[in-house]
Amino acid sequence: MHLYQENNGWFVECVDLNIFQKRIFLISQLEDVSVYDALNVPSEMEIIKILNDDERTHNVELVLGPKAMNQFRKYHPIKAKIFYTNPFQLSGICRFYIDTSSTEDIEEAVHWLLFLGNDIEIQKMPKEVKAYIKSTHLLSKISQRLI
């Protein structure tokens, strides 16, 4: 179970033992919580397997410079993973997954890229995100070398 705050709301990320999938719930929308029957509790290895099977591969990969790292520390999506490439944590590689079927997710990701600034280099990005950037004329704010 993981409790976190994002976009002015508190969320809990947990394994739903009724359907054996990882789910994210907005805490303010929870109505009924009950204790799970101790006889049917899956083992720790089964829960780890559920979590690993549910992990989606990343479809966005960014190389972050020092200025972008500062912005990343201020705010980043909960799903973004950072791999430091410098012992002083001044640069790194950021990987995360964007659901390309959701325009809201694409829009949020693009605005976050603008928030990071020009000190990023895009290594991998879905074509739907590139198309959104071109269609909304954000190319003036995101330099051509990034796309």
Your description of this structure?
This protein has about 150 residues and is α+β, with helices and mostly antiparallel strands. It folds into two domains: about 1-55, no CATH class; about 60-145, no CATH class. The protein has four helices and seven strands. The strands form two sheets. Strands 5-6-4-7 form a four-stranded antiparallel beta sheet. It is globular and about 55 Å long. It starts with a strand and ends in a 12-residue tail after the last helix. The relative contact order is 0.13.
Structure described in brief:
This protein has 147 residues and is of the alpha+beta class. Helices cover 29% and strands 26% of the residues.
Cα gyration radius (Å): 18 Å
Q: How many discrete structural domains?
A: 2
Biggest beta sheet summary: 4 strands, antiparallel
Task: Indicate the overall shape.
Answer: globular
Order of helices and strands: EEEHEHEEHEH
Q: Residue-averaged pLDDT, rounded?
A: 82
